[in-house]
Amino acid sequence: MPAIRLGALPPRLRKLVEDVRRKEDRLSLLLSLVIGALVSLVVIAFILLTGRLAGLMYPAGGSGWGRILVPTVGSLITGYLLFKYFPLARGSGIPQTRAALFMHDGRISLRSVVGKLVCSTISLGSGIPLGREGPAVYIGSGLASVIARRLGLSRMQIRSFVPVGGAAAFAAAFNTPIAAVLFSLEAIVGDLHAPVLGSIVLASATSWIVLHLVLGANPLFHVPDFHLVGARELGVYVVLGIVGGLSSVAFVKVLLWLRARFARLPDASLWIQPVAGGLTVGLFGYFAPQVLGIGYDHVERVLNGDVILKVVIALAVLKIIATSVAYASGNAGGVVGPTLFIGSMVGASVGAAAHLLFPASTAGPGAYALVGMGTAFAGVTRMPLTSVIMIFEVSRDYTIIVPLVIANLIAFYISRKLQKEPIYEALAQQDGLRLPTRISGAPPEMLRVSSATRDAPGSLAPDTMISEAAERVRDSVFESWPVADDLGLLGMVRTRHIAAAMDQGRGEMTIARLMQIARRSAGTRAVDLPHVHNDQPLSRALARMRDNGHNVLPVVSRANARIMLAVVTFADILKAYGVESADQLDYRDHPDL
Amino acid sequence: MKTPIVQPAPPPAASVSEFIATFAVILAVIAALLLFDTALARVDLRTRKAFAAREFRTGEQLLAEGKADQAIEHLRNASTLDGESSGYGIALAQGVLADGQPGAAEQMLLPLLERDPSDGAANLAMARVLAKEGRNDEAKSYYHRAIYGSWPSAAPESRSAARFELIDLLARTNAKQELLAELLPIQEDSTNDVAQRKRIAHLFVVAGSPSRAVAIYRDLLDRDPRDADSYVGLAEAALSLGDFATARMDLVAAQKLTPQDSASLQARVILTDSVIALDPTQRGLSIGEQARRTRNLVQMTLASVRSCLRVQAPEVAAGLDSASALLREGQGQSIEQSLLLAEHLWGLRRTRCTDAREDGALALIQNRIAQ
Strand runs (DSSP E) across A327-371, as ranges? Predict the structure, then answer.
């Protein structure tokens, strides 16, 4: 990289650069914008190239033999590239992103990013029925990781930018900026309360703006307005939730089962395995061209009511098998796209059947196809919130929310009952990776301050003489004592400071004066009234103790911080965590100590 | 009171120059990608639109050849490839309608109308669908929306075409008042379009306002006295007005101008002659002749009613027999009473006979009497 002579820069610019470089919040802001824009442009190029390649390789009305040949040859090429040069570019990209985040401090190499881009473009362009969202997320996360490393950011910061890139990629790939934020938090970080939320939102919004600048305001799907004919129709959405949930489970189980079978094959066959997927897809494509590729064109047709019951049922089944074989055999591509395709076909099937039976009281099948996409997404990825927001963003119609939530939750519940792990976690486990799950990531029962409190000792008045105070705290187990006046708590004073004052012959000095001196000597780190609340996690109490140096903290009312309810000590916190502190050990049981 | 929970991150390890250089490279890549993506997007859009247009043309051609089932697939491709173009969606719906699936066509048009309720072409297509389904009142409403809706190009012509479709529907359903209401606003719109004026004049006759038709035809003849069609139109209007003698004169005039159409015009002249010969209301007839013609008219009407109701309503036959008896006995009844009887019988025929065919001469005379 060419060196830049700083002397040549105007002083103002130089100061600005220094400011941005040194101040974390400004750097985060700038990087979020840059990553959002860059990732969006890369993903747009990926989408357009994939689409153009697909149009050239298997055009509408092309020969049947061509539809067999193209995916077969495409999978052969990608199989070789994946085996020889880019082993990390295999599959979806979401589990790989999570692995990079949790196992390699967010490190994703530029080589694997390029590999993912090349292999996924060839794979999807040759008609392999996998999705572009997973690879896009990997590419986005990888670019964020590369940039962060180039700038020499800390490991923590590199990690924090990985989901930022992922969100930007999803927003560009699916044109749903809010769902992209949730997807990144749920699928990549596994925590909706992650501290990188601000950066993720910013990158996602930037990515979406760039997408609209380049491609215009066209939505991913042109969807007609959603209509709920009547409250009775919600019953059909319940049925859709059940069918959607069962279909999701079937899809995940078939895919995982096939993947486990392929994993047993010798490693030397890894380069040829994807051909099994390509050939299967080609044979299906010979009879049903709609199976080829991501299939969003056909999804749009179905969403607009172009539904023949037998055809949509057949397409749902064929797509489940084709996608499972293609993914399990090691082709590059994700499962989000196929999941939405399958969901729309299942939804259209249920909707068409319902409309045949109750034409007056049900909407057309297009509406059910839209909700069906959500049920499949919720069932397969187990992200019901992302699913609801995503479909809402696609439809831009508030009236869809209630049927969508009902169907999604039913599908989610059925999927959770019948399939132990969500797809991305199951895929990681098949690869021998034990990544934190959204369930394991959150403590089942968070220990709170209230579980470790004890009654507060009698407080010292601020005008108490040091000599008197020393007498009161002499045999106490507390290392800090509360100081309070008539209006309530004023602060904490350390017993060792009282003892030191006594040793220096300052017995006539008041506690208030001692607190002033202690605060001044502590400098900027001193907090006037260190405290915790009953409902806060114990980890917060530990952090407060670390920051203030007190191993006793007052537990105060949320209504008035000067009302002390109890105290919490370091020893009590350890005990609450199940750790005995040294002073609680019975040394008679441990003679070696 | 704010307690820092997380330690601030250290500044980046990259030097300032590396920092700036990295950002410079990223910005350069962004600029290059922006150009690349924009160009690619334009090419992609152009390709899609071109392909959609090709599919649309193929679909339209197949539709014109009556191969609606094959046309649908191409029109569907066009509509999917270029979803922004409502024209493709409308063409698809019309293809589906031509394939005999009005319900499906309606479902396809609904989203287009939701997107733009004032889309003239979509409203017109929906009107056609509803007219095909026999939902004439709804169809009329959509025709009106098409007439007053927005048209991206050739708006006056498109609106006029939509209005004429509505007029045809109204003429087919014999909604004379509504037909007249639609004709009046366009009466003056097409001053220079002779064919359209003739069409309007003919529709005025259908709408029961032949005098307006006469005015138009007269105006056309003032401009071109050798216009045989206008003479034929005048004859039609005159027949409708009950002015049979004038009608005959006009037909003879047309015959002279177009000897090649002489046969068809001669048939009309013969019909008019028979009407004139039968008309009991003709001026200058003696009382005896009037009575004879009236009696003849009643008998013809009775025969027409009998032939039409014989199978369809045998229970009416007894009533007709008694009417015949009354006719035989009523040699001395007045001409007015006989005409009234003929009018009643004709009314019976019109209301009870599902056979819409009317006896030409008899119908014209009955029409004259009704006036």
Answer: none
